[in-house]
Design a protein that fits this description.
Rossmann fold, about 15% strand, globular, seven-stranded mixed β-sheet, five-stranded parallel β-sheet
Length: about 425
């Protein structure tokens, strides 16, 4: 059947919804190809930054989505229905992201949206997905995405700011590595989420730990000398650098230039291969360098190893944590479409709530929680290997993988503020 059902200008996505409203049996035929008037494929609209400040990370995530589609077709994730994907570059810009997401729905007739790892972009596309009544499977750390600004059509396959900092600052405090904390935070949604949670929830939960302050820095800042000076002057034992990507890299380099690792425990809430390559093993291997990793390719879970090997075989490089989250998010959404028997948004949503992610790349029974649609994935804590042991991007030793992240690393459903 053509993408415009019956040549009337009605999109395939709309056609399938109308079919669902009329007959579940007819819709099942549409998906499996048993009906001559049914859809021949499922179209994913992938919104990922392939250029701009996060383009290098986005290109790796594109490959995660491509591999998910390939494996979905090989394994028959949606019965016998072919899965296709169309990509658009968001450039990590909220207006651009909203525009290209709309194009994917209008021009490509996408059945659902997927992709991204910028919190501000996820919030913008999530609002559009709600208005357009389509599922949006994203990655984004801001607590607001699955909290105060949650949307019933949005499912987040990544870990939240709370989960990320639980693998960094909370781990350091649990291990007794310090009794006072100062923060240096990115002044946008993600960094603000982490800063507020650290100050008001994590530090305050320890009777013998003192919170000594925070310095906000602008997105894209290249000089952290004033913030580092303020952190040093505070006398804190632990400095939490709530910074991401290039900001993370530059802050780690300057922390080393200012000899912070000699006197302070330094933690970062989101570190991946790209950041590690740019920071360098000499700095990563400092005794007082601790980092959170949403996922790491050397994780020993069976699903993680299989995915890592397949990704490297296909592309000759290692998958990032954001790519792993998107791979699992896309395949889980497709499994839910199969279980729903069609692309009716309400039916997919019902199937995704409390569904275990497929495959299990964390190996802890991770699922999409029904109360806020956040994945209950386990944020790992890592430290850098000795430079002499680094070969082939094996920059880190995984030193902690919580087995029950919903109880130890996530907000309770009551704490999220999410209400669908």
């Amino acid at each position: 059947m053509p993408k415009d059902a019956n040549n009337s200008g009605t999109s395939r996505r709309q056609y399938l919804k109308y079919a669902s409203a009329g007959s579940a049996v007819a819709l099942a035929g549409c998906l499996t190809g048993d009906s001559g008037s049914g859809s021949e494929s499922i179209m994913i609209g992938a919104t990922i930054p392939e250029s701009g400040p996060y383009g290098n990370i986005g290109k790796n995530q594109v490959k995660g989505v491509e591999l998910a589609v390939k494996h979905a077709n090989e394994d028959g994730d949606v019965s016998d229905t072919e899965v296709e994907v169309a990509f658009r570059d968001t450039k990590t810009d909220t207006q651009e992201a909203t525009q290209v997401a709309r194009e994917l729905l209008r021009q490509e007739n996408a059945d659902f949206l997927a992709g991204n790892f910028s919190s501000s972009v996820a919030l913008a596309i999530g609002e559009l997905a709600q208005r357009e009544d389509v599922i949006y499977t994203c990655v984004g750390g801001s607590n607001a995405i699955t909290g105060s600004d949650c949307r019933s059509n949005v499912f987040n396959a990544g870990n939240s700011a709370v989960q990320q900092t639980s693998g960094g600052l909370k781990y350091a405090l649990d291990e007794g590595l310090g009794e006072s904390v100062y923060e240096i935070s990115a002044d946008y949604s993600w960094g603000q989420s982490i800063q507020a949670w650290n100050e008001n929830q994590i530090v305050s939960s320890y009777d013998d730990v003192e919170y000594l302050g925070n310095s906000f820095v602008e997105f894209g800042a290249t000089d952290y000398s004033q913030a580092i000076t303020d952190a040093r002057s505070s006398g804190a034992d632990i400095i939490s650098f709530n910074l991401f990507a290039s900001n993370h890299v530059q802050s780690a380099r300057q922390a080393d230039e200012y000899d912070l690792f000699d006197d302070f425990v330094c933690v970062w809430p989101a570190t991946g291969i790209i950041e590690a390559e740019q920071i360098g093993s000499d700095i990563l291997s400092r005794d007082n360098f601790y980092a959170s990793a949403p996922w790491y390719w050397q994780h020993e879970a069976e699903g993680a190893q299989a995915f890592s090997e397949a990704f490297q075989s296909e592309y000759g490089e290692r998958p990032l944590g954001f790519s792993a989250s998107m791979y699992a998010g896309v395949r889980t959404t497709l499994k839910a479409i199969d279980a729903a028997g069609g692309t009716e948004t309400a039916d997919i949503r019902d199937q995704m709530e409390d569904r275990e992610l497929f495959p299990q790349l964390w190996g802890v029974g991770e699922k999409f929680r029904a109360c806020d649609h956040r994945a209950s994935i386990s944020t790992m804590t890592v430290q850098g290997r000795d430079p002499s042991d680094v070969d082939g991007q094996n920059f880190f030793e995984v030193i902690n993988v919580p087995q029950n992240p919903e109880e130890t690393q996530m907000r309770t459903c009551d704490q999220t503020g999410c209400s669908f």
